[in-house]
What does this fold into?
Amino acid sequence: MYCVKCGVKLADTEIECPLCGTVVYHPDIAREKAESLYPGKKYPRAGITPRWPQVMFTVAFLLPLFIVLLCDIQFNLGITWSGYVIGALVLGYVAVVLPSWFKKPNPVVFVPCDFVVTALYLLYINLVTGGKWFLSFALPVVCGVGAIVITVVTLVYYVRRGKLFIFGGAMIALGAVILLMEFLMCITFEGVKFIGWSLYPLITLALLGGALIFLGICRPARESMEKKFFI
Ligand SMILES: [Zn+2]
It folds into this structure.
């Protein structure tokens, strides 16, 4: 008996290929108890994830952070422009490197973290620049988009079914957030008038989202689409 994937010779007792892990099944050979050709304990599979990439990324993150901070303090005697750079670096680190420290990063935990850090970063910019747009504009938009993304991620991660309904609903909700965004821009920034540009993405997203939900409900339509696009 040979492995269908890598071609290595196998004992008739083998349940899976010791080399590539492919499950072994031969309908004509009954699996009997016997010695394995390759002693499993002698060749342990590489299961330990090395930590050095994370360490390297952390150094690559901390190094520019300190350089930027020192330069700023050296020339401006305080934190001026470096605050933005550091904020962006922290945002990138939380979004990309932080989850990789965990064996099985749960997106339901990490995605909300990203939005919290984004909101804090915007709050910082707002405070430093003396803007008045955080509470009435940035925070509601981040919360709106965050709520949609977190809902989608949670449902896809835990429910694993009804993706058409999830994404369809998310598209319609996103259209509503864009409409809200235009409204908030009008009340936050002077000179911005409500002209209704957000209605175009809203209508487009509502139609697309509606189409996805329709496909979710109507099985014949879904099947014909699957045949057409080979999904
Ligand atoms: Zn194999």
Summary: The radius of gyration is 27 Å. The mean pLDDT is 87. Helices lie at 52-76, 82-100, 107-129, 134-158, 163-188, 199-217, 219-229.
